[in-house]
Amino acid sequence: MTEKELAQKSIQYRKNILKYITNANAGHTGGSLSCIDILNVLYNHTLNVNPANFRSSDRDRYIQSKGHCVEALFVVLADKGFFPESDLETLCKYKSHYIGHPTKKVNGIEQNTGALGHGLPISVGTALAAKMDNKDYKVYTLLGDGELPEGSNWEAALTAAHYKLDNLCAIIDNNKLQITGTNAEVCNTDPIDKKFESFGWEVRHVDGHDFKQLQQVFDSLPFSTGKPSLVIAHTIKGKGVSYMENELKWHHGVPNKEQYVTAIEELDNANAHIIK
Ligand SMILES: Cc1ncc(C[n+]2csc(CCOP(=O)(O)OP(=O)(O)O)c2C)c(N)n1
């Protein structure tokens, strides 16, 4: 897929995230908008996973540790044909499996997540299993930067390096905000790169909204033979909707009708610029 096609896809994904969150009157808007370009490149460029091979043990694994941003994952999985997009009209409704966090009851979801700090440990186990079974699949996991203070991440980081898991790629959606403030205010994790490097990981920085950089960084995995890889993706919470960008209240804010219309107009305008 070309960069232009990816850019257009991201616009459609952002529109869908807003549509289904608004319809559900619930969801994690800002963090879904910050990570959607990463998911776009993973599912449309990098991952060897699709509805046909999802039951194959050779498929690549994507485990979304920042599970609260499941809306981003849902719109991508629907686009890839894991389930009909119309299912998302039931998001957060009584008896729906499309709840506010990933659950394996939904086709295409690898792991139940949402309690922060679980995705990296599970991914380490899955990557270790690949090594033990002589399988070539790769394991990708997306973490929030505000998730990093969970201690389980650091046990997992240590273990990944110990077992030389170069089939593991962790991606940090580094939007600098979490639920009640900036990461610097709530629990400072900087410098993230130096911390992971000291644990034995190989680290790269990218602009998490730049399709070319994202494609290139995933194409160059593993960054170093025998080491787990970390991509620190610099992103903007609420990316794509001007009044949501870098605004804490959109962590789980839901747009009202007028705000929704404005957001869709902005995204349509952005699309018109891409087509030009
Ligand atoms: C174990 C655990 N503690 C607290 C929460 C509540 N919680 C939900 S989202 C969030 C902030 C996460 O910040 P970040 O990972 O940076 O997410 P993003 O900004 O990308 O949405 C918190 C503390 C949780 N889901 N799990």
Descriptive overview:
- Helices cover 42% and strands 11% of the residues.
- It is an alpha/beta fold.
- It has a 5-stranded parallel beta sheet, with helices on both faces.
- Strand 2, helix 5 (151-162) and strand 3 (168-174) form a beta-alpha-beta unit.
- The chain is globular, with a radius of gyration of 18 Å.
- It binds thiamine diphosphate.
- Thiamine diphosphate binds next to helix 2.
Please give the largest β-sheet: 5 strands, parallel
Number of strands: 5
Q: What is the residue-mean pLDDT, rounded to a whole number?
A: 98
Shape: globular
Structural class of the secondary elements? alpha/beta
First and last CA, distance: 18 Å
Please provide the ordered H/E string of secondary-structure elements.
HHEHHEHEHHEHEH
Bound molecules: thiamine diphosphate
Strand content is 5-15%
Computed CA radius of gyration, to the nearest angstrom = 18 Å
The neighbouring-strand order within the major sheet is: 1-2-3-5-4
- Share in helix: 40-55%
Low-confidence stretches: none
Q: Please report the number of helical segments.
A: 9
